[in-house]
Every structure is written in structure tokens, then in C-alpha cells.
Amino acid sequence: MDLSKRFNKHLNQIEVSMIRQFDQSISDIPGILKLTLGEPDFTTPEHVKEAAKRAIDANQNHYTGMAGLLELRQAASDFVREKYQLSYDPQDEILVTIGATEALSASLTAILEPGDTVLLPAPAYPGYEPIVTLVGANIVEIDTRPNDFVLTPEMLEEAILEQGDKLKAVILNYPANPTGITYSREEIKAFAAVLRKYPIFVISDEVYSELTYTDEPHVSIGEYLRDQAIVINGLSKSHAMTGWRLGLIFASREITAQLIKSHQYLVTAATTITQFAAIEALTAGKDDALPMKAEYIKRRDYLIEKMEAMNFQIIRPNGAFYIFAKIPVKEGQDSFTFLQDFAREQAVALIPGVAFGQYGEGYLRVSYAASMETIQEAMRRLKVFMEQYAD
Q1: Does the N-terminal or the C-terminal CB of the chain have fewer CB atoms within 10 Å?
Q2: 144 — phi, psi (to 5°)?
Q3: pTM higher than 0.90
Q4: How many domains does the chain have?
Q5: Is 268 left (phi over 0), alpha (psi -120 to 50) or beta?
Q6: Where among 285, 313, 331 does a domain terminate?
């Protein structure tokens, strides 16, 4: 029986992530060093792991409510109030999800219908578009290259006006993957002034919020657009808990009442043991990201120094843990092939910029969520490769 033509037709528009495609294309190289993953090389803090063990020993192995443990939602409410001046009621304005990815899926499937349009500043994390595509909606990218990857209120409003009534949502991600760009309070206020004029949702992916390297703390757009914003965060980056899969949605009471429907039927509820660990992370471990952040800054600065000396053009990232660098121009050289050659000649893997969409072509992404020793050796090998490349 041939069922090949009976799948969701939108699946034909989705491919396996180019990041994964690239990884597979070089995975047979012995001993390859990878600066590819957006995953901290640090381990989950010991006190967080101990909290999970206590929950296991206490037989906390049953479902929680759909929205998650109230104690966790209270901890999350307190955390974002102290850190980002946000006010969300733990009773009915916070949802606990299985990572930020499920938070995105629950949010986008709840608000989008076939034919809707979603605006996305680009280059961007490649996980947004497939979710939008699966429900029959469309992504329209805003090219931020002319302004060194920084979105402006003028660029945003121009894009909104071009889309008209089909526009349902704008996705913001800051600090941004892959560029590391983030925004000041004044910039966020300016975005909010534009967005509040239009009846659209604002999905703000702020999962790197604790990894902001400016003098000013992270500013959430939820502070200024409470009636429109769906703020997404989680513990993967801040607490080195990628495999624990703990995400959070913060939204108004009215929005949350709808999001919980899609969340419920996607997953029922987040993992109970992880929720108990998350309570510990957001309370006793509320500043666990600080020593990690200090180390990331050292790695970032080292990479910038070494790569600029090799003629890579870099916009200094002020958040997350990525360098997004323009490859020195060589006619006919695309980023995928360039990095395949580098991987095969020097056994180092970086991510081609085209993996982040058409506006990422000509760039590469380096993750500095790896040890300094690994980074130093990778840069030594890159220097050898670039000397050959220049000949």
C-alpha cells in the first residue's frame, strides 16, 4: 500500500535542517573538532541535579497539571520579575513546556492559520520556519545585513506595512542565534512603539537572556507589550540543561488561555522530575549563569582577535555564544563548500551561514560553547587552512 502522497502536503516544503545535513556530510572525519552546537559545554549545576534526585526518591513520577507545577510557575514569575521587571501571574499567565522548541510549536500552532504571514528578522535560527510552514502559513524575512544584523524600528514598520492584513505575528530572537545581536532598553521601547499600532502577536524568543554581555541587563519586550507578547524562555542555555528540556511561556491571561490548548494536546505536560530540578535552578540557582557568562566572554574575545587577524569580518556579538563571521571573499565559494573543505583538510567543523537562510550565505557560525583548549586548537587549524586558502 502506497501512502507516500497522503502525508501533510506542507512536509514537502520542509527539509532536514541544513545544520544536520552539514554535520552528516563531515561526520566520518576521524577526530573532528566541532564548534557547531548551541549547547553549553558546562555541566548542569550540582545542586540542580541533587534536586532532581530528591524528586525521584520522593516518587515524584506522576503527571503535573497541564500548565506545570504551581511552585515552579511561582519561581519563574519571581525570577523574571527580579531579572527583567516582568509581571506574570503564576496562576494563569505562565506555562511550563518541554523546552523552548515546544513553547514555539505550541505558540505558533495556536495563533497561525493557512495563508497567514509571519515576519522574521534574518539571518535567523532555522527552527522557526518549519513550524510556520507545517500549519500552512508563510515566513517573510527582514534582511538585517545592511545594518550589521541590527533590526531597526523603521525596517520593522516598513515590513509590517508591506504585509498588510495577512500579517499575524512577528518573531523576535535576542540575544540572537546566529549573530549574537541584542537590544538596549531604548531600542526595545522603540520596537514596542511600532508593534502596538498593529493587531499582531509578538513571539519573543529570549532563551539567551542570561547570556547578555552589555552593561545593561537584558530587557524583555514583554515589559512593554504585555497584551501582544508571547515571551519564550527556558533553562537550556542559562543553566546548561539542554537535555532536561524545560521551557517557559509568559503571556497575558487571555493569550495563555488559548496557548494551553495547543500545549496540552502536543505534550500533556512537561516532565515532572525536570520541573522539580527547575524550581531549584530558578531559586537557589538564579545566578548560576554568571560564571558561565564570564567564561563565554573570554572565549568570544579570543575568537574575535584570532579570526579578525585572518581577515574575517565580525560584528561583535553582545549576547548568546556565537561568532557570525563573513568569510574572506573568494569568487565562486559558498559557505557550505568552504566549510566542507575546511573540515576535510583540518578536521574542524563550523556551521555554514546558509544554514540560517539566504541572508546568511557568505558567513560562518562558530559556537564558543566549547572549551578554550578546543577553541585554541580549532583556531590554529583555521589559520593553517586560511594561509593555504589565500594562495
Answers
A1: N
A2: -95, 0
A3: yes
A4: 2
A5: left
A6: 285
